[in-house]
Amino acid sequence: MMKQRLAIDMDDVLADTASRFVEYYQTRTGNELSWEKLRESSQVQLPDGTFTTLHDWVFEEGFFRGIKVMPDAQEIMKKLHEKYEIFIVSAAMEFPYSMKEKLEWMQEHFPFIDWRFIVFCGHKYMIKADYLIDDHERNLSTFEGTPLLFTAQHNLHIQDFTRVNNWQEVAEMLL
Amino acid sequence: MMKQRLAIDMDDVLADTASRFVEYYQTRTGNELSWEKLRESSQVQLPDGTFTTLHDWVFEEGFFRGIKVMPDAQEIMKKLHEKYEIFIVSAAMEFPYSMKEKLEWMQEHFPFIDWRFIVFCGHKYMIKADYLIDDHERNLSTFEGTPLLFTAQHNLHIQDFTRVNNWQEVAEMLL
Question: Where are the extended beta strands (E) located within B24-145?
Answer without folding.
Answer: 44-45, 51-52, 85-91, 118-121, 131-134
